[in-house]
Amino acid sequence: MTTVKIINKSQHSLPNYETAQSAGMDLKANLSEAVTLGSLERAIIPTGLYLELPEGYEAQIRPRSGLAAKKGITLLNSPGTIDADYRGEIGVIVVNLSKEPFTIENGERIAQMVIAKYEQIAWQPVEVLTETTRGEGGFGSTGRK
């Protein structure tokens, strides 16, 4: 298990895994007063959390499926990436895609965060790429099953 340093300036407990096999942890809104988003409005919602991720790790910020399916609330720039060298507060870009206003209350679970390993690459300029069965087939090229 990897250890991640965290500063919690919110009024809420640290994010945690809700089940033994959860990939993500819920992030909660840290608000002094509720924020209401009208249809198609967006806002950056603070969490009060600051991370120090180990080199080679990122935090991915993703929508919560229940909010998206039931209320039309999702995230822009999703998944958002928090790089290992970022030290600012985690903010979540929430958008209301429904026709009804949606109010975000202090402590509401607004997103989920997944900590993931990554590798940086080095480019190798070439003139030709290895051929595959798919080739240059783009969007929808693999057909329906």
TrEMBL record:
Top EC class, one word: hydrolase
Pathway(s): Pyrimidine metabolism; dUMP biosynthesis; dUMP from dCTP (dUTP route): step 2/2
Gene3D superfamilies per record: 2.70.40.10
Family annotation (Pfam families): dUTPase
GO molecular function, one term: dUTP diphosphatase activity
EC number: 3.6.1.23
Catalytic activity as recorded in UniProt: dUTP + H2O = dUMP + diphosphate + H(+)
GO term, biological process aspect, one: dUTP catabolic process
Cofactor: Mg(2+)
Annotated coiled-coil segments of the chain: none
InterPro entries, per database record: dUTPase, dUTPase-like, dUTPase-like_sf, dUTPase_trimeric
dUTPase-like domain segment(s): 13-143
Binding of substrate, residues: R64, S65, G66, N77, T81, I82, D83
Entry keywords, A to Z: Hydrolase, Magnesium, Metal-binding, Nucleotide metabolism
Entry-linked NCBIfam families: dut, PRK00601.1
Family: Belongs to the dUTPase family.
Function: This enzyme is involved in nucleotide metabolism: it produces dUMP, the immediate precursor of thymidine nucleotides and it decreases the intracellular concentration of dUTP so that uracil cannot be incorporated into DNA.
Protein name, UniProt field: Deoxyuridine 5'-triphosphate nucleotidohydrolase
